[in-house]
Amino acid sequence: MEVSDDRREKALELGATHVLNPVEVDAVARIKELTDGGVDVAFDAAGVQATFLSGVSAVRKGGEFKVVSLWEQPVTFSPNSFVKTEAKITGSYAYANLFPEVIRLLAGGIIDGNKVITSLIPLGDIVEKGFETLANDRKQCKILVDMHLS
Questions:
Q1: How does DSSP classify residue 112?
Q2: CB 39 within 8 A of CB 64
Q3: Which helix (H) or strand (E) holds 99?
Q4: Which long-range contacts (C-beta less than 8 Å, at least 24 apart) are formed by 73-79?
Q5: What is the pLDDT of residues 71-86, one digit of tens each?
Q6: What is the pLDDT of residue 10?
């Protein structure tokens, strides 16, 4: 699920089979149709109430909802949604425990990390061309800092 056209296009380029704009369709209903009742794992990378509720609702019985975002506001939900499905909520701060799996996928050629790199910048440009660009340009995915560039 993604509201940005550019990011939905990038997801398809990276191998996604379906992309949904939750503003245009009932994404949870469509996910349940496509997956025969829900996904094994849903990730929240946005950190807002709407994505939390959608992710919780999209998980199948016994599935997992993984929170990888940081939150500016508290979220509210009914724990019954997890009790009834026996799903679980887990979190990952800065993806620390995901690195071994990502390295394995990259090394095995299962995913191409180059496709998510949208810019390469020198350290001196990290604020303007790094942080500010990421905050304001929805086309960006990953901006790498190269210490050898000037």
A1: -
A2: no
A3: helix 99-107
A4: 73/48, 73/49, 75/49, 76/49, 77/52, 77/53
A5: 899 999 899 888 888 9
A6: 87
